UniProtKB/TrEMBL annotation:
The chain crosses the membrane at residues 90-114, 134-160. This is Anti-sigma-W factor RsiW. The keyword Plastid does not apply. Residues 10-40 form the Putative zinc-finger domain. Belongs to the zinc-associated anti-sigma factor (ZAS) superfamily. Anti-sigma-W factor family. Keywords: Membrane, Transmembrane, Transmembrane helix. The keyword Transmembrane applies. Coiled coil: none annotated. Gene3D superfamilies: Anti-sigma factor, zinc-finger domain. InterPro entries: Anti_sigma_zinc_sf (IPR041916), Znf_put (IPR027383).
Length: 165
């Protein structure tokens, strides 16, 4: 038993994973895998590639699958009415249309939200700044209103004096 077998059954690994090997070859590959970490890594890689491919394929064509399976289901259940089929495909395309619109709107909304957050930051900073300088601001406002009040009182008094005399 050697730790590093000379011949790696690299070409047979994917066939092994697909279950396409004969009993003898399968046993050979399995016993090789038990002793060869390199080939085990290769198998892991092949498996993860297979999973990636499968999931990519599934995410690429879920609608066709759905349509086909629904159509198959209907034709199995009863005689498929062309109107039903047409309505179904219309509904499916409407659903995918709205899904696309929803996705686009969602993306836009997320962008807008990010923009709003960007805008909010300086506003928030400004408002906290204003609140921090509130006593000064309030003082200015009070000063202005007091001046305005005295000015109007003075002019009212003057008006009263001119009308009485
Ligand atoms: Zn090997």
């Amino acid at each position: 038993m050697s730790n590093h077998p000379e011949k790696h059954p690299e070409e047979q690994l994917s066939a092994y994973l697909d279950g396409e090997l004969g009993e003898e070859d399968r046993m050979l590959v399995e016993s090789h895998l038990k002793e060869c970490p390199e080939c085990r890594m290769l198998v892991d890689e092949l498996l993860s590639n297979q999973h990636l491919l499968l999931s990519a394929f599934e995410s690429m064509s879920p609608r066709e699958d759905l349509e086909a399976s629904v159509a198959a289901h209907i034709s199995k259940e009863a005689h498929p009415l062309p109107v039903v089929k047409r309505t179904l495909s219309f509904a499916l395309s409407a659903i995918s249309f709205f899904a696309v619109i929803g996705l686009v709107l969602g993306a836009l909304y997320i962008k807008m939200f990010a923009g709003a957050v960007k805008l909010m930051k300086p506003l928030l900073f400004l408002s906290t700044h204003l609140i921090a300088e509130m006593p000064l601001l309030m003082g200015v406002v009070i000063l202005f209103s007091v001046t305005a009040l005295t000015l109007s009182a003075v002019s009212l008094l003057r008006l009263l004096r001119t009308t009485t005399s």
